[in-house]
Amino acid sequence: MAQINSSPEVLIITSHEAKEFAYSPYSKFRVGAALLTHDGTVFTGCNVENACLTLGICAERVAISKAVSAGHREFKAIAIASDMEDNFISPCGGCRQFMREFGLQWEVYLSKPDGSFIKMTVKDLLPESFGPEDLLKNSH
């Protein structure tokens, strides 16, 4: 957890730095994430695999869980990094739903190792999604 300049470029660099800590002995697919809160705090995460494959956790969920455990519930942006040079990294479906839990309008930067990126929102990644407000609706 640190406070940094909140430009997309700095957030992307931070996500690539987080990727270096990935524990991915099975897939060899390293992922890093840098999550920016509204007060300028950045939480990083990396993927952590497990021999029992279903117990692994993605970088995005690590960063969000760290932020939530420190009392943050609203986010401004997340940058995601991998070693893929030909494609922008994109969050898995589980991470998209996990991100959606905390709103639809925050920014998501999908990056490549050269620093190039695509800017999206959580809503762009998961349109017509199910969220906390849906549990509050009365069904008839």
From TrEMBL:
Coiled coil: none annotated. It comes from the Eukaryota. Pfam families: dCMP_cyt_deam_1 (PF00383). Zn(2+) binds at residues 58, 92, 95. Its EC number is 3.5.4.5. Residues 6-133 form the CMP/dCMP-type deaminase domain. It catalyses: cytidine + H2O + H(+) = uridine + NH4(+); 2'-deoxycytidine + H2O + H(+) = 2'-deoxyuridine + NH4(+). GO terms for molecular function: cytidine deaminase activity; identical protein binding; zinc ion binding. One of its GO terms (cellular component) is cytosol. The active site is at residue 60. Keywords: Hydrolase, Metal-binding, Zinc. It is an enzyme of class 3 (hydrolase). Its cofactor is Zn(2+). One of its GO terms (biological process) is nucleobase-containing small molecule metabolic process. InterPro entries: APOBEC/CMP_deaminase_Zn-bd, CMP_dCMP_dom, Cyt/Deoxycyt_deaminase, Cyt_deam_tetra, Cytidine_deaminase-like. Belongs to the cytidine and deoxycytidylate deaminase family. This enzyme scavenges exogenous and endogenous cytidine and 2'-deoxycytidine for UMP synthesis. This is Cytidine deaminase. It comes from Ictalurus punctatus (Channel catfish). The gene is cdaa.
